[in-house]
Write a structure and sequence with these properties.
The structure holds two protein chains of two kinds. Chain A is an all-alpha fold. In chain A, about 75% of the residues lie in helices and about 0% in strands. Chain A has helices at about 1-5, 10-40, 40-60, 65-75, 80-105, 115-125, 130-165, 170-185, 190-205, 230-245, 270-290, 300-310, 325-345, 355-365, 370-375, 380-410, 415-435, 435-455, 460-480, 490, 495-520, and strands spanning about 210, 215. In chain A, a hairpin with a 6-residue loop joins strand 1 (about 210) and strand 2. Chain B has a two-stranded antiparallel ribbon. Classes of the chains: A mainly alpha, B mainly alpha. Chains A and B meet through helix 9, helix 10, helix 17, helix 18 and helix 19 of A and helix 1, strand 2, helix 2, helix 3 and helix 4 of B.
Chain lengths: ~525, ~150
């Protein structure tokens, strides 16, 4: 470890980059064939299929987004081999994302926040009897966006991983801080509250045995807490339970006639003509923002929507069923998914809560996330990438004929649905460690999650903080050890300084825009 | 009349007191140490200070008028208690008595969130869920979750 710190990360990286790239290009094809071999194994194909199917199933249900779908299904993957587990979870992610859009388009109720954009034009299209077309276009745009994102992931992840191998603890520390700050300030609410919740998350990550001293911290004499706070009960409590508490007892959504045949889904030539440019623009935008922490999903898709509306010759049609309003944001969203995996898999720094759960899945499998993953487990990385392709193809195949089933699921009234959601959440949490304590943690974090909703505090930064708490402290401690307690080391090392500068910029920009929003209100 | 955003004030004060609590707790229970050789209390204490400061800022900003993008739910006690009681009951019952009793209790309690309480529908739902969870988890996924556990 020591020699890693002594080298200046920056110049070694840039010197070796040229040679390394050539080497990587040569290795690329052999890696790809390794991935094809891994992903096309019968068991992994099956996991991918099951993941996509279950993801669609959960995602379609109102109020259950990809985040809840992944945390619900995470415990099931414990018994699978590492690559199978990740492949299945990625399938769940793609599936749930698609399913959430179904709910938005047909009911006008976003299944989860990221699908909110589909409501704007998808729901009007559904009311005009063109819901099938909207869904089909969403499917195509998702596929296109995913393809762009995956190609970028294939190209850039190996390069970044190679650079990252030279990073010392100071670089990791600053990059984590950048990720945390970006993810906690770009939400809809106050950036100050976001950062505060991120700190609360880091503090939750402190609970448990300290790696350096072996002392159990903040366990308040509860023996179960010496292993730390479980990520699954927190994620499910903050998102699933709090959401159920919010929605239970309200008059549920009533659905109109939702019937359409296979043929109703086919877009016209005009639809295609209007959609391909937005898809191109959207995927470029999404790919860029997806790689930055915190900005994937919500923000980038809204930006894409705004751009499409601006460049369109018929901006007045937006919000009344313009197909561009589906095609652009949707490909943007999925391109971001692919590139969001770049920092997650190469640096071990997740950009959003879903990537944090993916990292948690890796850790549960006994794999330490970081740049070494690509070299020590190449079959895992490349198998996952190839399975992204397979998963997206499954998604298209599954959805076009099965749309009728998803539509019927939408008509289940909420009072019949939410006891089942609570039950599956409880069983999922329990099965993690066969521990009743985890069910009580779920209860506590469900309550905390609801109180946070009441106080307009966002849960995503807390979850990210919880995941990064231990590694962040560890890297910080090591940095200080190496630098003799000199904080200036963070700005003396160029990569670290750059990351910190970006973090300050992001923080400053979001603060200014937030305060300005306040001022305008008074 | 001065406008005070009560939700922000509460959030700020809560977070600030949590921060102070962490600082005090960390200092009294763990060695803090110096930056070059941090004790187990150093990092939590640092975070505690930052949290306390942010909490104060949030509380102060509560005295300004604001447009909010987030829409908080109404505080309704019945659904909250019903859902939490359902989870607690499941936790109490699942290991001692088995999956089926846990599921039944959970469903009946969770349904209390709905007004009016529809007994017939709830019974049908409870039975269906018990059957489903038993088939999926005990039989299908082979988890160590016995359906009934009267003996223990």
């Amino acid at each position: 470890m020591a020699d890693l710190h002594d080298r200046s990360a920056d110049d070694t990286a840039s010197l070796e980059l040229g040679g390394v790239t050539m080497e990587l290009l040569n290795a690329f094809l052999s890696h790809l064939s390794l991935g094809v071999h891994e992903a096309f194994s019968l068991s992994n194909l099956w996991y991918c299929f099951v993941g996509v199917f279950l993801g669609c199933l959960v995602g379609v249900l109102p109020g259950l987004g990809s985040l809840i779908a992944i945390s619900l299904l995470l415990p099931i993957t414990y018994h699978l081999p590492a690559s199978g587990a990740l492949i299945m979870l990625a399938g769940v992610y793609f599936g749930a994302d698609y399913g959430g859009g179904t709910c938005s388009i047909l009911l006008g109720v976003p299944g989860h926040p990221a699908a909110a954009i589909d409501v704007l034009d998808g729901y009007p299209m559904a009311k005009q009897g063109r819901g099938g077309v909207a869904l089909f276009m969403k499917c195509v745009a998702s596929f296109w966006g995913s393809a762009v994102g995956i190609i970028l992931l294939m190209l850039f992840a190996p390069i970044l991983a190679n650079v990252a191998l030279k990073f010392g603890p100071a670089e990791y520390c600053s990059l984590m801080l950048l990720g945390l700050v970006a993810a906690s300030t770009v939400g809809q609410g106050s950036p100050i509250k976001g950062v505060a919740m991120m700190i609360v998350g880091l503090l939750c990550g402190m609970v448990g045995t300290d790696v350096n001293s072996g002392i159990a911290r903040f366990n308040f004499d509860i023996p179960e807490l010496s292993d730390g706070i479980g990520l699954i009960p927190v994620a499910m409590g903050l998102f699933a339970v709090a959401e159920v508490v919010r929605n239970a007892g309200k008059s549920s959504v009533t659905t109109g006639e939702l019937k359409f045949t296979w043929k109703d889904q086919l877009p016209t030539r005009e639809d295609w003509r209007r959609s391909w440019m937005p898809m191109l623009r959207g995927s470029g935008l999404g790919a860029f923002f997806g790689a930055l922490p915190g900005t994937s999903g919500g923000m980038a898709t809204f930006l894409s929507y705004a751009i499409e509306k601006r460049v369109s010759k018929h901006p007045e049609q937006f919000g009344k069923g313009a197909i561009e309003g589906i095609a652009g944001p949707e490909s943007c969203n999925n391109a971001g998914v692919g590139t969001a995996f770049i920092p997650t898999l190469t640096l071990g720094i997740p950009g959003d809560a879903i990537m944090a759960l993916m990292l948690a899945a890796l850790v549960i499998q006994g794999i330490q996330p970081g740049p070494e993953v690509m070299t020590s487990h190449p079959e895992l990385f490349w198998g996952l990438i190839v399975s992204f392709w397979i998963g997206n193809i499954f998604l298209v195949i599954l959805n076009i004929p099965l749309i009728g089933i998803w539509v019927r699921l939408l008509t289940i009234p909420y009072p019949l649905l939410y006891p089942g959601i609570i039950l599956f959440t409880c069983i999922g949490v329990y099965s993690t460690n066969n521990s009743v304590f985890d069910i009580y943690s779920l209860l506590v974090f469900g309550l905390i999650g609801f109180v946070m909703m009441l106080l307009r505090l966002e849960p995503v930064p807390l979850l990210l903080g919880l995941v990064l708490g231990t590694p962040f402290e560890e890297y910080f401690r090591r940095t200080m050890l190496v630098s003799n307690g000199n904080f200036a080391t963070f700005i003396e090392r160029p990569i670290s300084a750059a990351a910190l500068a970006v973090a300050v910029l992001v923080l400053g920009w979001s603060l200014v825009s937030f305060l300005r929003r306040r001022a305008r209100g008074s | 009349m001065k406008h005070i955003e009560m939700r922000d004030l509460t959030a700020g004060l809560l977070l600030a007191s949590l921060g102070i609590f962490v600082v005090v707790y960390a200092r009294s229970h763990y060695t803090v140490g110096k930056a070059v050789n941090m004790g187990p209390g150093y990092f939590p204490m640092m975070l505690g200070w930052v949290l306390a400061a942010l909490g104060v800022v949030i509380a102060i900003l509560a005295f300004r008028k604001t447009i909010h993008a987030l829409h908080p739910p109404k505080l309704e006690i019945a659904p909250l208690l019903a859902v939490l009681a359902a989870i607690a009951a499941f936790g109490l019952l699942v290991q001692r008595f088995g999956l089926v009793p846990g599921t039944l209790a959970l469903t009946f309690l969770a349904a209390l969130a709905e007004r009016p309480y529809r007994l017939g529908r709830t019974i049908a739902l409870a039975v269906a869920l018990a059957l489903m969870s038993w088939l999926i988890f005990t039989i299908g996924l082979q988890m160590t979750l016995p359906a009934w556990n009267w003996g223990a």
